[in-house]
Design brief:
Length: 268
């Protein structure tokens, strides 16, 4: 199949579970892939896996919260392939390593999470769009929000707030770029079986409470996000913009558990 033949896709967070799965799927559909990751060796390893499967890919180290580094990522795409016409903005963190509960949250923790998740998505989308406009091309920007933007769980308010803002940014990008021939849509994953989710949930009652609120009764797999990503990147979605597609096993419509106190402490 070649639904993305001739296209160049930048995938930030492309060495992570979701980004890597999407990058492989886009490569299998004919796109040339530029993997962006904070660690250059991880980015190159992810790109090497795509090349080993017969695709075209390079890996680039990037901190998506820094404009000059995102510009360098776009430069690398053009030097290796061509102007990127697809941006899949999956770089994201749940925490910068500090306390994540609201009353203990520091400015530094808040600022770093928002910088990566929101500013990083803005910079990637803006820079890809700027270059597409200069080249006279059309394209697709795909953001990654979360079911937690609508249904936050206890803890990690910076993460959930940033993802809600990403959903809003997606709609703003769509409105501001449509006349330029650039579409913007988002994917809001539900509870996907990744290391990030396992770190947030732990095990036991908290994990079981989450599964009880997913109508299909299980966590999702990263492979179950790739179809939506390829569709939104391809010309099949030419009349789709400003949408945030929830791929969540029905979690959004069923709702979320009541706020749960921390595992230790009095929860006051």
């Amino acid at each position: 199949m070649s639904r993305l033949a001739g296209k160049v896709a930048i995938v930030t967070g492309g060495a992570g579970a979701i980004g890597h799965a999407v990058a492989h799927a886009m490569a299998a559909e004919g796109a040339s892939i530029v993997i962006g990751d904070r660690l250059g060796e991880r980015a190159e390893a992810a790109a090497a896996a795509i090349r080993a499967a017969g695709g075209a890919a390079i890996g680039v180290a990037v901190d998506v919260s820094v404009r000059s580094e995102v510009e360098a990522l776009a430069d690398a795409a053009e030097e290796a392939f061509d102007v990127a016409s697809i941006a899949f903005c999956s770089a994201g963190i749940t925490t910068a390593g500090g306390a994540t509960e609201l009353l203990e949250l520091t400015d530094q923790e808040w600022d770093r999470v928002v910088a990566v998740n929101l500013r990083g998505t803005f910079l990637t989308g803006q820079i890809v769009a700027q270059r597409l406009v200069r080249a006279g091309g059309r394209g697709s920007i795909i953001t990654v929000s979360s079911v937690g933007a609508e249904r936050p769980m206890f803890g990690a308010p910076a993460y959930h707030t940033s993802k809600a803002a990403v959903s809003g940014l997606t709609r703003a990008l769509a409105v501001n770029l449509a006349h330029r021939g650039i579409r913007a849509n988002g994917i809001a994953p539900g509870y996907i079986a990744t290391e990030m989710l396992r770190n947030v949930l732990g095990s036991g009652d908290r994990a079981q409470a989450l599964l009880s609120r997913v109508p299909v009764g299980r966590l999702g797999e990263t492979s179950e996000l790739t179809g939506a990503a390829v569709f939104l990147a391809s010309d099949e979605s030419a009349y789709v913009t400003g949408q945030v597609l929830h791929v969540d096993g029905g979690a959004l419509v069923q709702g979320w558990t009541a706020a749960q106190p921390p595992a230790t402490g009095d929860g006051a």
